[in-house]
């Protein structure tokens, strides 16, 4: 029974920390575009990569 006196306040603190992390990430724009990166992977890009500056052209 004495363990509950420690575990209940500790769990409340952990929940508040998790909420703070979530809302900080949300305010920082972490969840703005969830679809874009997945669609960029599927785009067909057949153009050859550009050579780095100073490298000869093939």
Q: How much strand?
A: under 5%
**Over all CA atoms, what is the radius of gyration?**
24 Å
Determine the mean pLDDT. Answer: 87
| DSSP E strands, number | 0
Shape: elongated
Distance between the termini: 76 Å
| Count, helices | 2
SSE succession:
HH
Helix content: 55-70%
Task: Please explain how this structure is put together.
By secondary structure, the chain is mainly alpha-helical. It has a domain at about 1-25. It is built from two helices and no strands. The mean pLDDT is about 85. InterPro entries: Cyt_oxidase_maturation_cbb3 (IPR004714). It comes from Janthinobacterium lividum.
What topology emerges from the helices and strands here?
Blueprint: H1 2-27, H2 36-42
Features:
mainly alpha, 2 helices, transmembrane helix, membrane, 58 residues, Cbb3-type cytochrome oxidase assembly protein CcoS, 0% strand
Summarize the structure.
This is Cbb3-type cytochrome oxidase assembly protein CcoS. It is built from two helices and no strands.
């Amino acid at each position: 029974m004495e363990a509950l006196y420690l575990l209940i306040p500790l769990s409340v603190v952990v929940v508040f920390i998790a909420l703070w992390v979530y809302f900080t990430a949300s305010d920082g724009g972490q969840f703005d575009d969830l679809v874009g990166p997945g669609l960029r992977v599927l785009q067909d890009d057949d153009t050859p990569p550009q050579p780095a500056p100073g490298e000869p052209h093939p």
